[in-house]
Design goal:
Layout (H helix, E strand, L loop, with lengths): L5 H24 L8 H14 L1 H28 L3 H19 L4 H15 L17 H16 L6 H25 L3 H25 L1
Helix pairs in contact: 1-5, 1-7, 1-8, 2-3, 3-4, 3-5, 4-5, 4-8, 6-7
Length: about 210
């Protein structure tokens, strides 16, 4: 986060909100699997191998879809060039829209598409094969927050930990929003996520254009 200016930090928090929102919908749709948090699915895969092969299969499918989404997002970003972020978010919006259409036919199939979308989202800020910021998983951000809190006691300086706290909070608020809307909207709640991704694609295009013109 410390590499980004204030507008881009705000944009990253909005993306974390979207990730939390979609993850909550995926979690509720699949009764306990994740579409953005692959560490959790990896644990479910391991436990499933030992006790329930159907759970292991579902977790493995979601992990593979997430990885494929990262690869697909990176390819789209490479082709799009300067329009990388907008193109990837349009891809995310399309995947979410197809997932919304599929929920009634196959919950796991829809969750796989959600995982594809969340994998792709992690490539929005990709540079030279590196994703400088985890948008759909917060373990690294929580570690930085812990260092920052320790710095208040030791006097050591850990710059930017407050912005990582806001990133984590964005994901949590997004998840709360998804969990709140799901009982009312069911799969239609995914359409809101698709629309949000399209809006953010437009916003980042405007932000990039303004930055280039400045």
């Amino acid at each position: 986060m410390i590499r980004f200016d204030r507008p881009m930090q705000g944009f990253a928090i909005a993306l974390a909100f979207l990730a939390g929102y979609i993850d909550a919908l995926g979690f509720l749709t699949t009764s306990g699997f994740f579409v953005s948090f692959m560490s959790g699915n990896s644990t479910r895969l391991a436990v499933g191998i030992a006790s329930d092969r159907s759970d292991a299969t579902a977790a493995a499918i979601l992990i593979l879809c997430f990885v494929a989404g990262v690869g697909g997002g990176a390819i789209v970003g490479a082709i799009a060039g300067r329009r990388q972020s907008s193109a990837i978010l349009i891809l995310v919006a399309m995947l979410l829209a197809v997932a919304a259409l599929m929920v009634g036919q196959s919950a796991l199939g829809a969750a796989g598409l959600l995982a594809l979308a969340m994998g792709a989202e992690n490539t929005v800020f990709e540079r030279e094969g590196e994703a400088p910021l985890g948008l759909t998983y917060m373990t690294g951000s929580l570690v930085r927050i812990g260092f920052g809190l320790a710095g208040l006691v030791t006097g050591r300086r850990y710059p930017g930990w407050g912005s990582y706290a806001l990133l984590w909070l964005g994901l949590v608020v997004g998840a709360v929003t998804g969990a709140w809307l799901f009982p009312m909207l069911q799969q239609d709640a995914i359409w809101l996520g698709s629309g949000a991704a399209l809006v953010m694609a437009l916003l980042i295009a405007v932000m990039r254009r303004d930055a280039q013109g400045a």
